[in-house]
Each structure stands twice: as C-alpha cells, then as structure tokens.
Amino acid sequence: MIQSSHDEIRKLIATSADDLSQAQQALLHAHLQECDSCRDYAAATAEIVRAVRGIPLAADTRLVLNTQARVRARAFALRQRQQWLTLTALACPFVGLCAAITTPLIWRAFDWIGTHAGLSRPVWQAGFVFYCIAPTLLISVLLLFRGTHLANSWHSRESS
C-alpha cells in the first residue's frame, strides 16, 4: 500500500467513528485487517484516548463561578440585543409612516417660506434637502464615533 493511503487511514483513525461515513468505516476496517503498522497505530491511539478520558478533572470553584457569571452575562447581553432588534424592527415602519405623512407638509412649509422670503426655488429646495439629510448625517457620525469607541474599548479589553 502506498504512503498516502497510510496517511489517509491515520486521519480516519484520528476521526471519531460517529463522523465517518459507512464507506470510510468499511475502508478503515479492511485496511486495519491487512496492515500491522496501522493496526498498531489504531491501538496506540485508542489507548491514549482511554488514558486521557480516565484522568479525573476537577474545576476550582472560582473557575466555575466565573464561568457561570460570564455565561449569564453573555445570555443577558444576547437577550438585550434581541429586545433592541425587536424594538428597531417595530420602530422602522412607524418612522417610515411618519416620514411619508410629514414630508409633503414640510415641503409645502418650505415652499411657503421660500415664496414669502423671496428666495428662488432652487435655494429653498436645497434648504429642504439639507433639512431632511442633516439629522441623518448627524446621527450617522455619532453612531460611527460610538462604534469606533466601542471597537477600541473592546480591543483594549482583550489585550489586557
């Protein structure tokens, strides 16, 4: 048998039997009946696995408590994030409806103000566009800075 086949068989030996397909299990079984070297390797691997599983493992109570606290904190954060996502999903249609209702009214107000102030049509229209876009730009910048701050604080927390 060629060397690459032995390497493939050793990879199959290292894989859990539950993760192997029927064909792979049959190939492994047939090869182990023919090859003493791979059979010895499989026996040694099984012995090592049994020895490692036989080592008793006891966790310090502080480790258990810290792990439980972190799991609870992560679960709380995930619940909180889900609540925010739900709130956002509910708020988006409401904001869209409000924008659809108020935009024509604001347009008329800008038209009226522009006409009474003697402004040309492109000037008051530019003011309307700025009026509509400015809050979005401001909030985007604030969120960008907040996200950058969060990323930097997360990075500094990981490095310490």
Helices and strands in order, then pairings?
Elements: H1 3-14, H2 22-34, H3 36-54, H4 61-117, H5 121-159
Helix pairs in contact: 1-3, 2-3, 4-5
Describe what you observe in this structure.
The protein is mainly alpha-helical. 88% of the residues lie in helices and 0% in strands. It has helices at residues 3-14, 22-34, 36-54, 61-117, 121-159. Helix 1 (3-14) packs parallel to helix 3 (36-54), helix 2 (22-34) packs across helix 3 and helix 4 runs antiparallel to helix 5. The model has no long low-confidence stretch (mean pLDDT 86).
What does this entry show, briefly?
88% of the residues lie in helices and 0% in strands. With 160 residues, the chain is mostly helical.
> Which blocks of ≥5 consecutive residues have pLDDT under 50?
none
The secondary-structure class comes to mainly alpha
C-alpha Rg (nearest Å): 33 Å
List SSEs in N-to-C order: HHHHH
Percent helix, as a range, is: over 70%
Distance N to C terminus: 52 Å
Strand fraction:
under 5%
Give the oligomer, counting copies of the same chain as homo and different chains as hetero: single chain
Shape descriptor? elongated
Features:
160 residues, mainly alpha, 5 helices
